[in-house]
Amino acid sequence: MPITTSDILGSDQVGIYLAVCGNVVFHPHELNDEALNRIDEYLGLERHPLTIGGSTLVGALVTGNSRGLAVADIATESDIDILTSFGDVVVMEGGVNTAGNLLLCNEQGAIASPAIPEEGVEIISQVFGVPVAVSSIAGEDVVGSLGVTNDHGVLLHPDVLPDEVLLIEEVLGVPPMVGTVAFGSPYVGAGLAASNNGAIAGRETTGPELNRIEDSLGLI
């Protein structure tokens, strides 16, 4: 099965710690062998240990695709130097710097939080090399925490609004579904990390939730 459950540094919030960006997954340095083996087996990507400004919350602070990356402005020069070896980098500044929480992207497009200024959205589109649309999910701004996508599908917060669904489907170019993780959490982006090959969900994720994740992300 191309999906498993795990925890990262004792937390069910797998998506806050793991950043899947194109063909690489960035992860905290401190992971044990079990966690690293699960990343290798189920995500099937090159992996690279990283902190952002000393923080292990890599998935909340970095996002991107195979062409470009966005990172919070707490990143050090050495952090940014590492990231630039994987693509162009935009540094998100001020109060909108949790890149992984505020962007939802794949190789076809990106959804940006309404909290990101217009000029920032334009730069992100240039760096990622894809069209970017501004939308909330379920009326909330933290779109990266409320959805998870790959190049086959997108899983969204169960309360996503119909007009949001239409825009997300158009921009990301994949069919949307709704679901939860970790025994009912609607914050699917925070509780799940996914590639085109497989996914890792929080340890408390139930069998029906795992089936839904598989279906939504085309992992069957």
Keywords:
9 helices, 220 residues, 3-stranded mixed β-sheet, alpha/beta
Task: Please characterize this protein's 3D structure.
The chain is α/β, with parallel strands linked by helices and 220 residues long. It is built from nine helices and 15 strands. The longest helix has 11 residues, at 33-43. The mean pLDDT is 96.
Report on the biggest sheet.
3 strands, mixed
Ends apart, CA distance between termini: 8 Å
Strand content: 15-25%
Strand order of the largest sheet: 1-15-14
DSSP helix fraction: 25-40%
Structural class, by secondary structure, is alpha/beta
Number of separate helices? 9
Average pLDDT, rounded to a whole number, is 96
The value of Rg in angstroms is: 15 Å
Q: Can you write the helix and strand succession as a string? A: EHEEHEHEEHEHEEHEHEEHEEEH
| Structural shape | globular
Q: Unreliable runs, pLDDT <50, ≥5 residues?
A: none
Write down how many β-strands occur, each being a DSSP E stretch of 2 or more residues.
Answer: 15
